[in-house]
Each structure stands twice: as structure tokens, then as C-alpha cells.
Amino acid sequence: MKWPNHGGQPETIKKLLHMKEDKSLIDFSANLNPMGPPTWLSDALHQQYETITRYPDPTYSKASAAIAEHEGIDQDMVLVTNGGAEAIFLVAKYFEKGKALIAHPTFLEYERACTHYHIDVEDLIVDDESGYTLPVQLIQDRFAEKDVLFLCRPNNPTGTVIPEEDLQLLLEIGKKKDTYVVVDEAFVDFLPTTIASLTSWLSAYPNLIILRSLTKMYTVPGLRIGYIMAHPTVIHALKNEQIPWSINSLVDAVVPRLLEDRTFVDKTKVWLHGESRYVFSCLKKLDYYVSPSLVNFYLLQDKKSPNRTDELYYFLLENGILTRHTHNFKGLNGKFIRIAIRSYTENQHLLTALQKWRKE
Ligand SMILES: Cc1ncc(COP(=O)(O)O)c(C=O)c1O
User: Which of 239, 260, 281 delimits the end of a domain?
Assistant: First the structure.
């Protein structure tokens, strides 16, 4: 079958597999926060209704000022984008026709964006046996001949986090060799408070470009909110490539309130910490492999039948559970499924189904 490129598409999967339209599925395939969106957001968007009758501020000044303040950086180091996806494509455009390194398995869009802008890409495959640890020495050896390295931290689909020491080493070498390091932090807000974003490193490393998305934490995939943080010269160049009015007026208006709502983020972190520990311990007891994830999704494989992952995927679907296949993640090739942490009740459905699979 032609597997869809992304998660969060239950209707497409039903059509592809000729399933009944009214078959109810719990969507574990998109890694969105089940606690969101924040309850106040609906009213806030309604209050902004009138703004859609006018052209938005082309500089998105409310959103970018709020992001700069929130991150503790100057506004000329921020570019608001139409989701994390636009951020990725704008950055790829910056390296058009250049040479890139991508550490896989990772989010597909880096490769797609590089291909779109005729970037010559070298893949590095990081395997599960190493716990998805970056081969830092190998990357260092390649740096002189590359313009950019794409990394995802925390990484989608593994949920793992590259250690700070490794990143620092790569950024230092990159600084000397004129190689940029792009770090996609779309899931950074889900990390335990002991692991920080790399924002404070921006002043030391002009070769660091950070990508963000508010989509996952605030459960707003339909709004399209992302941003890029980098040295002012990079931001200036990227801004010149961005299409006019890429950010709509609703987004410009609600970003400041979203970023102010620390209670929502803190509550999510507390919930996630407890729920993920519980889910992982149940899965390990059932003898499933779980990737060493620190965030709201993880890779799973049946250790007893590692070659039956497709069968497991279909079994879960029959049991009303949609997970994310990994056929299009380089280095995974369908050997795992990616599963989001959902609410307690939804996770119980998953655990019950996985228990049933064990007994099959
Ligand atoms: C690592 C990563 N970066 C960026 C994105 C894109 O985010 P957005 O929906 O804000 O465009 C995703 C979406 O799945 C993602 O997983």
C-alpha cells in the first residue's frame, strides 16, 4: 500500500484500507498534546474575528515581539513562520544548491525541503542499537565539505535528545568550518525542565539556527504557528524569501497569549511525566521495545516478533487504534510504529490491545 507521509490522517487510512467510514479510531499517530488547546483559545479567536476583514500586519509585530520577549532575545533574531514546516523550507532555501547532512531516522520534511532546493544531501543512519546516539566523530569528519547539518532535538520519531556536549562540539567545529547547524526544537516544550532549549546558545554560535513550532504543545495544527531564531543576518535573509502575509491576523493576535500561558505548559509537563512513566513501565512489562523517549511519543516494537510490525499495525487498527507507520523513516523502514502518549483512558485502550496481541 502507499503509506501516507504523515500521521494524523485517520480518514486517509480508512479509505486506503477500505475500512468503514464510521469506524471509530483513537488517533495515536499524530504527536499532539491531548490536553490542548488551552480552553481560553476559542473565545480569544472569536474576539479576533473582525481582524480577518483586514490585511494582517505584514511584519507580524505582535507575535514576533512576544516571541523575542519570551525567548529573551532581540526581535531581529526572530522570524515568525507559517508553522514549523515553513521554517524548514525557508531554511533549506537559504542553503539552496549547497551540501547538507541529515541524521536519520528523523522528520521527513528536512529531506523534502533539501530536495526541493536542489541541496545535495548525505544521509547518516543512526540505529536503535546505539540508543539513537549521534556518530559525532563521523559528522565532524564530514563537516568541512558541508554547508549545513539538520538535527531534530527532541527527535521525531524516536523522542530522544542529543546530549548538550555533542551539540556544543559540533557547533564549535561548525563555527570554524563555516558549517551551520539547524536544530528543530518543535517538541522542546515537552521536555523535563532539566533540559533546556538552545536559545541561550545563539549569541555564542552565529552558525546555529533554531526552528520552533507551537503546533504540538498547544494542539493547533490548523492555525500554523512556528518561528525561526538565528543571527540577525540569517533572519534578514530568510525574511526576504518569505511570502507576504504568510502569518494570518488570528495567529499574530493569539501568539502573545499562548506564550504567556505557562500554566498550560507546566500542567502538560506534569501530566506527561506521570503518564509516560506509567505507559512505558506497562509496555516494558509486556516485553515491548520502547525507544528511550523523553517526550510525548515513542517508537514501539514487539521484541518477541520484531518482523511482524505491519501485522501489529493492522491488528491495532482493527482494535480502533491508529498508530504511525515508519515505512518512510530512513533507518526504520517499517520495523517500528510510532505512538503518541494520549489521555489515561485512551492509553488504557492501547495497553489492552497490546496485551491482547501478546495472547494472539
Ligand atoms: C520535528 C517536527 N518539526 C516540524 C514539524 C512541523 O510542524 P508544523 O505543524 O508547525 O508545521 C513537525 C510536524 O510533525 C515535526 O514533527
Answer: 260
214 and 274 share a domain?
no
pLDDT at 267 over 90: yes
Within a 10 A sphere around the Cβ of 100, how many other Cβ atoms?
A: 24
Average pLDDT, stretch 265-275? 97
Q: Which of 225, 260, 295 lies at the terminal end of a domain, its last residue?
A: 260
Is the separation of the CB atoms in 330 and 125 below 8 Å?
Answer: yes
Instruction: Show the domain range for 214.
Output: 54-260
Q: Is 183 in the pocket of ligand 1 (CB under 6 A)?
A: no
Pick the closest to residue 87 from 204, 157, 187, 184 (CA basis). 184
Please work out whether the CB of residue 87 comes within 6 Å of at least one atom of ligand 1. no
- pLDDT tens-digit series, residues 232-261: 999 999 999 999 999 999 999 999 999 999
Q: 17: pLDDT confidence band, cut at 50, 70 and 90?
A: confident
Prior bond of 306 cis (ω within 30°): no
Is residue 89 lining ligand 1, measured as CB closer than 6 Å? no
Going from the Cα of 84 to the center of ligand 1, the distance in angstroms, rounded, reads 5
Per-residue cell: 258: 499562548
Q: Is the CB of 213 under 6 A from ligand 1?
A: yes
d(CA 286, ligand 1 centre) in Å: 31
